[in-house]
Amino acid sequence: MSEPRPSITLNAFLMGTGHHEASWRLPDADPRVSRDVTYFQELARTAERGKLDSVFFADSPSLMTDPARRPSETLEPRLLLSAMAVATERIGLVATSSTTYEDPYNLARGFASLDAISNGRAAWNVVTSADLKAGANFGYTTAPTHAERYERAEEFLEVVLALWDSWAVDAVIADKTAGVWADPARVRSIDHAGDRFDVAGPLTVGRSQQGRPVIVQAGSSGPGIALAAKYAEAVFTATPTIEEGRDFYRRLKDATVAAGRSRDHIRILPGLVPILGSTEAEARDLERQLDDLVVLDHPLRQLAADVGIPVDQLDLDRPLPRDIRSADEIEGNKARYELTVAMARRDDLTVRQLLLRLGSGRGHRAFVGTPEQVADTIEEWVTSGAADGFNIMPAVLPSGLELFVEQVVPILQDRGLFRREYAGTTLREHYGLPVPGTEGGLPQTG
User: Fold this and answer.
1) Going by C-beta distance under 8 Å and a sequence separation of 6 or more, which residues neighbour residue 36?
2) pLDDT tens-digit readout, 358-389
3) Rg of the chain over CA atoms, in angstroms?
4) Which of helix, strand or coil describes residue 285?
5) Which of 128, 129, 210, 412 is most exposed, with the fewest beta carbons within 10 Å of its own?
């Protein structure tokens, strides 16, 4: 069932009008597309036309930005991906859901349903939310600590995996003559009794063509790496320089081996924000056009809150002050905070420059140039041990994805670095991953 592993894995990270925060203000942008299902179906078809491995939605159970700042509506991602599943045939479908504020049984059932609807193309991006605004929607008055979130996440994952494995591969017999649809011995309860969850099982949905949904993870802190090494089959990360990419790649691959897994069974995909033009000058013009449309008051207030100082103490034309909070005080996205501060210090950025850098990709690697130059960057990272591929984050949608598919993908194909056709039908086949519960695959839980 498994195809030879492609040299490069490419995922399309979809976000409204694009990842640049001012993309919605471009003359051709439609600022109301965030609730347009046909728009996202067409994006998925575009990615599938380019033979990309998967599309992905980030998510939070609260508004992810000030509604004055940029389009902030987000449809429930599993429902949206179900609509995209029926409009496509091969592209993988990845959605974010949080272990902090979700229920493991409902989450397991939702993703198993998406996996069945898509014929084995679903993946769950595991996040450990710390946003107190999200917690307030579930009755929480304080946010869990960083350690508490990851402790809960580990038990949560164990429950979800056990539920997905509560149906054996050969459980369904469908014997009309004997009048037996499934072997009861092959559909079992999980009877999980833990510190945080008590779940009997079994799940109401059996196995798909790929066995169970792929596990994706996005944390890059120490606990995040430990969790990914044990469970993740793909990791979305932010590593803005190739040196940081190589370091993260080595640490996570080594940790995966130390956890008793094959280093080939986890795909590391840094974010890449391409701003493309037929010439460098054309690409720079688009970058300037986008940056000129950023309303700096919005990200300035967010940065002030992140670093823990009054907004009036941030001078747009001076570097970040030295007396900002340390990463040890952060209970939220600690790794992203460290990345932001390190980038500001390393590149000696003014606050204005930092805000514009963050506006294009929130700390992910932004690249401005021609399709050939973007392809060169992708090849260098993959061949030098900094990535297994990339989480492509078009600055502007739909045009940025269309340009990537029409102009960058053919270059990678001509270099023998990316598939010309899908060899399989499931996301596990695209990623080159084993099927749980089959010979040579991952063991079942429980």
Assistant:
1) 30
2) 777 676 788 899 999 999 999 999 999 999 99
3) 22
4) helix
5) 412
Cα separations in angstroms, 126 against 12, 23, 53, 165, 432: 17, 27, 18, 18, 20
Structure tokens that stand for 126 in this block: 């595991």
Angstrom distance (rounded) from CA 235 to CA 335: 14
The residue to which tokens 């164990």 are assigned: 158
* pLDDT(439) > 70: no
The DSSP letter of residue 405 is I
pTM of this structure: 0.90
205 token code pair:
């949905």
pLDDT of residue 440: 44
318-353 pLDDT, tens per residue?
A: 888 887 767 665 655 666 677 778 777 877 888 888
Q: How far is CA 164 from CA 110, 161, 218, 336, 445, in A?
A: 11, 5, 21, 31, 9
Tell which residue, 308, 291, 273, 276, has the closest CA to residue 353.
291
CA distance 158 to 168: 17
Going by C-alpha positions, the residue among 446, 442, 37 that lies closest to residue 213 is 442
The fold of 9-278+363-431 is TIM Barrel (3.20.20)
Distance CA 55, CA 63 (A): 21
Domain ranges across the chain: 9-278+363-431
Length of the chain: 446
pLDDT, position 5: 47
Helices 37-49 and 77-85, axial angle in degrees (round to 10): 60
The band of 211, judged by pLDDT with boundaries at 50, 70 and 90, is very high
* E strand or H helix at 95: strand 92-98
Rounded to an integer, what distance in angstroms lies between the CA atom of residue 303 and that of residue 319? Answer: 13
H/E stretch holding 193 reads strand 192-193
Q: How far lies 294's CA from each of 285, 298, 301, in Å?
A: 15, 9, 13
Instruction: Please state whether beta strands 122-127 and 214-217 pair in parallel, antiparallel, or not at all (unpaired).
Output: parallel
